Amino acid sequence: MLRWLIVVLLMLIVFSGLQPWLQKLGFGRLPGDFRFRLFRREWFLPITSTLLLSMLASLVAKWL
Question: What stretch of H or E contains 60?
């Protein structure tokens, strides 16, 4: 369980950095990706995209 939590948190960090590039591919607009305004700032929680990219990374790691 702790490994998955670490993987998801790392993917959130990576996803935040690569967000402009990945939006061109359609990530960040999936159902379950939340975008809201709070304290005059726009917040973005890409939960579904993070899980999808995490599973993809896991499959690639197991395949190699």
Answer: helix 47-63
